[in-house]
Write a sequence for this structure.
């Protein structure tokens, strides 16, 4: 068992505890899916991270994409929507599924204005890392974030295909994969979001946010 | 001079006649910065005097700049340059749009797209990084902008950006727009695209914009800028008294306050009090919906929105279920004149059964905005509405329209304020149906064809600034002679917000006068509606305002937010930082320039604009041919003298003196207002001086 996996299991409050504490497990699958990663949530998405979770609160997101620019410039020295590790632009205009028949009422800037972000969950069993034939994706000691070693990466794109959310991206200019490293704890996207739609929180904080939000 | 960062480095050139697609280096244009600067340089070099805007020889240039797409604050603007069809002498002009098209262009690898020629049949331009093709647009021709943008996105992929014209542009209506996203319009050049059979441009960019400087220093610079930014138009005090704020101003666009919500969000989100240091709340400060649509708009507001890399969010996004009755989407987004422009055609207030006056106001204005946007009709900064109402009130409409056409108009709907009137009005304009469509040709052509008398031009309520046929846009109401002269320098309404943002910051007059004295000298600004004659400080303020406007449209930064002359920070004594543009430019491109040096680049671009105007007008005296006002500015308020309290009236002699002083400050001929050879040479525009001389237009 890796150190990070061990850390996750030994956390004071686990994800299961969180769901139990907030009563979600008792409410049922429909409500639960509202909060689970990768669900069809329309309001808030909650993502597990190595140390906690990043919340993208859709209702507060105004689509400025400051997060993408600050991420890519900070990490790569160049602004790019492709290498940005938080991904709003790819769902920006018409939602995650793109143009659909009822686009006028569907998600996205051209529809009902609901913006959906794709963000790295820093999965407990990271498909990207498990699939990488070069073992180029490792855990950062400080944050537990799954990080690509550019020296080992051969640009095969296996991680891109393995991730259910399409988070790892091959930089078309370097042919090296890249993904969210939580800025080694700094999380620039969260710090620069002008509406506080992004938050990087521990599990304890997540419970508090939940209580505040629903006044329970 | 190799380009290291900021610029993409490549300009795309598309000849629609030959279907040739070529690329060239941006280096040739780097002295013109980008955006507007590239546009003017191309127009000067390639478009002969006397070219009609709808001729194949005309160019239309989509330009972005070295800061576009870098993430620098408010750097999402696209500048579009071409001959302006509604202008009497078809002068060169710019239209601008925000949204995300500009950054996509940069990520695809282009600083500009130069379009010329005319396609044999309707096409759209598909740009996927280096893969550029012309595609059949027959399926989109005849469609509105919303369907076109959506259809092209369906073909290109969900992460593409599209700019398109509606039926108005296709039919070469002079007052037509190019649109992108749900709410971003560039007014004036839609017909040029239509004349070229170019329905749209779709772009997918997977590349990047390099930052030449240190990434951490860049991040800090952007953070520092976040710390001094205000609300929309760089208003730096809240609109209501708030405990943290020393000052407030009811007219400020910093409208967030306790108890004011995005009322139609999935759950109500309070804008709240936003302190200057709360960077994660900047996006709540500008609750623009209630400014543009009145108090009832609160409950319809889903959220705010806007352009790439802008934390300020000046576009209102609303859910208005009642719009279904008018056949348009119930999800509507826009800002400012995007709402008020269409509204201007209506008689006044709206009457909708079962709705309050305030609710009807929201429903009416948003209906007009949706319909005008879809057809792609431009309001000429609100002029089309004033023209329509002048034609009604002075009996022209009934006289010039054939009886059958006049009787077919649903004037009963107009009389009672039924938003359904928008549908037939804009359809007739966009499809050039009947005589009414003359309204879409612009004020100059309309007045000529319908035989408007001189009173049309001299009535202050018509707001026409010069005989070019464009209205006031922060003119003499903005520091008297300062806004007055700024408004005369362009070939359409002045889209300059540099001076207006400063004047509207919300800070008390004594603080503003201190800051203005530091920037331009004592006496640059006066108490509103209590103006003094022109002086050297005012002239410096005029020049600086124009130059920064030009700079922003070239970099490209949003002139509705930039420059940062003031800040909301008491600890900075409310001072901003006017060197920020040069700091961003230096860091992005790697070229170290001072604030003054960058301003000189912008001065080159503005001087080239002036030379282009002289060339296109074949004028040896722009003072007489271009810069003269319609007259109401001097004759309004007959019981008041200019420079007295309570009037924005200008004085004829003072106006002429102000022109002379500005010409001198710009290095132009003080009599004719045409750039001198000496100044053109100083600005590395010797070839421009040679051309003007060859045409017999160089007067000094």
């Amino acid at each position: 068992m890796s150190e990070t996996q061990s850390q996750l299991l030994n956390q004071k409050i686990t994800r299961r505890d969180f769901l139990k504490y907030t009563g979600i497990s008792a409410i049922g699958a429909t409500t639960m899916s509202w909060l689970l990663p990768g669900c069809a949530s329309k309001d808030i998405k909650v993502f597990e991270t190595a140390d906690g979770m990043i919340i993208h609160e859709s209702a507060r997101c105004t689509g400025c994409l400051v997060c993408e620019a600050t991420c890519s410039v900070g990490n790569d020295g160049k602004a790019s929507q492709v290498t940005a590790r938080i991904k709003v632009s790819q769902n920006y205009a018409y939602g995650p599924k793109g143009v659909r028949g009822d686009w006028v009422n569907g998600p996205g800037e051209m529809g009902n204005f609901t913006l959906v972000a794709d963000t790295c969950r820093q999965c407990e069993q990271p498909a990207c890392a498990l699939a990488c034939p070069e073992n180029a994706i490792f855990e950062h000691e400080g944050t537990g974030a799954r990080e690509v070693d550019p020296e080992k990466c051969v640009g095969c794109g296996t991680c891109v295909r393995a991730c259910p959310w399409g988070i790892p991206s091959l930089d078309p200019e370097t042919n090296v994969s890249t993904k969210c490293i939580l800025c080694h704890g700094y999380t620039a996207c969260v710090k620069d979001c002008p509406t506080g739609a992004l938050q990087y929180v521990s599990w304890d904080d997540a419970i508090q946010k939940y209580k505040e939000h629903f006044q329970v | 001079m190799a380009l290291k960062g900021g610029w993409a480095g490549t300009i795309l050139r598309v000849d629609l006649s030959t279907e040739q697609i070529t690329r060239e280096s941006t280096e040739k244009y780097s002295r013109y910065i980008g955006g507007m600067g590239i546009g003017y340089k191309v127009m000067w070099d390639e478009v002969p005097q006397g070219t009609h805007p709808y001729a194949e020889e005309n160019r239309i240039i989509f330009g972005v700049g070295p800061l576009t797409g870098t993430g620098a604050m408010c750097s999402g603007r696209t500048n579009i340059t071409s001959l302006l069809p509604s202008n009497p002498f078809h002068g060169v002009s710019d239209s601008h749009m925000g949204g995300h098209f500009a950054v996509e262009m940069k990520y695809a690898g282009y600083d500009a797209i130069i379009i010329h020629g005319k396609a044999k049949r309707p096409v759209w331009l598909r740009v996927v990084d280096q893969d550029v093709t012309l595609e059949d647009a027959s399926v989109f021709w005849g469609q509105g902008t919303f369907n076109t943008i959506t259809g092209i996105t369906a073909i290109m992929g969900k992460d593409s950006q599209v700019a398109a014209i509606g039926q108005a542009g296709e039919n070469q209506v002079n007052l037509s727009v190019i649109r992108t996203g749900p709410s971003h319009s560039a007014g004036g050049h839609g017909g040029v695209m239509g004349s070229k059979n170019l329905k749209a441009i779709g772009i997918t960019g997977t590349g990047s914009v390099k930052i030449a400087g240190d990434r951490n220093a860049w991040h800090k610079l952007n953070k520092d800028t976040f710390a001094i930014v205000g609300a929309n138009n760089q208003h730096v005090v809240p609109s209501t008294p708030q405990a943290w704020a020393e000052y407030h101003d009811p007219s400020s666009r910093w409208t967030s306050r306790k108890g004011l919500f995005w009322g139609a969000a999935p759950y109500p989100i309070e804008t709240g009090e936003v302190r200057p240091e709360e960077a994660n709340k900047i996006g709540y400060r500008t609750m623009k919906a209630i400014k543009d649509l009145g108090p009832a708009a609160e409950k319809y507001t889903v959220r705010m929105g806007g352009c790439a890399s802008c934390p300020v969010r000046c576009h209102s996004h609303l859910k208005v279920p009642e719009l279904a009755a008018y056949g348009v989407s119930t999800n509507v987004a826009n800002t400012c004149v995007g709402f008020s422009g269409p509204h201007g055609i209506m008689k006044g207030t709206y009457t909708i059964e079962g709705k309050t006056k305030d609710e009807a106001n929201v429903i009416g204005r948003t209906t007009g905005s949706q319909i005008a946007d879809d057809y792609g009709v431009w309001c000429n900064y609100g002029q089309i509405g004033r023209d329509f109402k002048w034609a009604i009130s002075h009996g022209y409409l009934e006289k010039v329209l054939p009886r059958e056409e006049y009787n077919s108009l649903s004037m009963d709907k107009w009389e009672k304020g039924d938003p359904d009137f928008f549908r037939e009005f804009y359809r007739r304009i966009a499809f050039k149906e009947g005589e009414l469509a003359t309204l879409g040709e612009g004020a100059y052509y309309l007045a000529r064809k319908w035989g408007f008398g001189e009173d049309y031009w001299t009535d202050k309520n018509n707001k026409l600034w010069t005989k070019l046929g464009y209205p006031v846009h922060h003119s003499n109401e903005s520091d008297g002679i300062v806004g007055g002269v700024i408004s005369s320098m362009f070939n359409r309404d002045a889209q300059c917000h540099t001076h207006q943002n400063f004047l509207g910051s919300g800070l008390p007059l004594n603080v503003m006068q201190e800051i203005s004295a530091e920037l331009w000298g004592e006496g640059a600004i006066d108490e509103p509606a209590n103006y003094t004659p022109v002086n050297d400080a005012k002239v410096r303020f005029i020049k600086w305002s124009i130059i920064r406007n030009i700079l922003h449209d070239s970099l490209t930064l949003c002139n509705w937010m930039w420059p940062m002359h003031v800040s909301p920070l008491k600890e900075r004594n409310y001072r901003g930082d006017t060197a920020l543009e040069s700091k961003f430019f230096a860091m992005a491109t790697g070229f170290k320039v001072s604030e003054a040096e960058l301003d000189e680049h912008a001065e080159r671009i503005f001087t080239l604009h002036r030379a282009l105007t002289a060339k296109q007008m074949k004028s040896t005296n722009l003072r007489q041919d271009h810069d003269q006002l319609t007259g109401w500015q001097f004759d309004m308020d007959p019981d008041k003298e200019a420079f007295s309290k309570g009037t924005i009236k200008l004085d004829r002699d003072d106006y002429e003196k102000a022109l002379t002083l500005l010409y001198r400050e710009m290095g132009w001929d003080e009599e004719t207002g045409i750039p001198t050879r000496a100044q053109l040479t100083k600005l590395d525009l010797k070839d421009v001086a040679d051309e003007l001389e060859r045409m017999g237009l160089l007067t000094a």
Observations:
- Chain A touches chain B through 53 residues (CB under 8 Å).
